Amino acid sequence: MRGTLYLIPNALGAGALDSVIPDQVRARTASLQYFIAENAKSARAFLKLVSATHSLRQSIQETHISELNVNTAAEHIPALLTPLLQGHDVGLLSEAGVPAVADPGADLVRLAHREGVPVKPLVGPSSLLLALMASGLNGQSFAFHGYLPTDAEPRAARIRQLEQRSRQERQTQMFIETPYRNEAMLQALATSCAPDTLVCVATDLTLDTELVRTMSAQQWQKEISAGQLPSLKKRPSVFLLLA
Fold first, then answer.
1. How much is the pTM?
2. Which of 45, 171, 204, 219 has CB atoms 3.0–4.6 Å from 209's, for a disulfide?
3. Is 5-121 CATH 3.30.465.10?
4. pLDDT tens digits along 170-192
5. How far is 32 from 204, CA to CA, in rounded Å?
């Protein structure tokens, strides 16, 4: 008999979990002995927060945590299913937000389906969906593109390409950036997009410092020129545009 692979969401920033992770999700997490996470150290920190409201099945030191991240070779992923194939339930824990969305867990989930392992997604915060909800842009048709090119010219060309796709399909385009390049990304959007294209920046979602703003590219340009933008440095952000 196969165990169940539980997809466990994490908070989007530091602090208590009870405002963003439902009680039943924390209870299920506390009941597990096996976890797969991007980083074992941060997974233990998450379990410590869970233990503040729910007694763990076993101590954090005794809990088995395997790592799955961008450095995990494809040939090593099947071995992560071993506890599941032996009948143990396993939690796939995201570093932030939900597993397998903009997250290396998708390959493991696909293998779980192939091996007949039940997959159970649990409720929690998704920065992408929260950003889309708050943007006022088209929530009926949207696409997420991960990271755009880091060099200025290829990035500008990619933005114009996505803007054209948005205009043709009336589709919201979404992407993320490494936090220390957020301000460069916003400047690129303001200068590369047509003046009336709507651009949204959703920053620090679910945190006390949360900021969501949607304006035209022309309005963003004016604020940048006037030096009126809030600092986006080192603040996780989602960017959206609709032409």
1. 0.92
2. 204
3. no
4. 999 999 999 899 999 999 999 99
5. 29
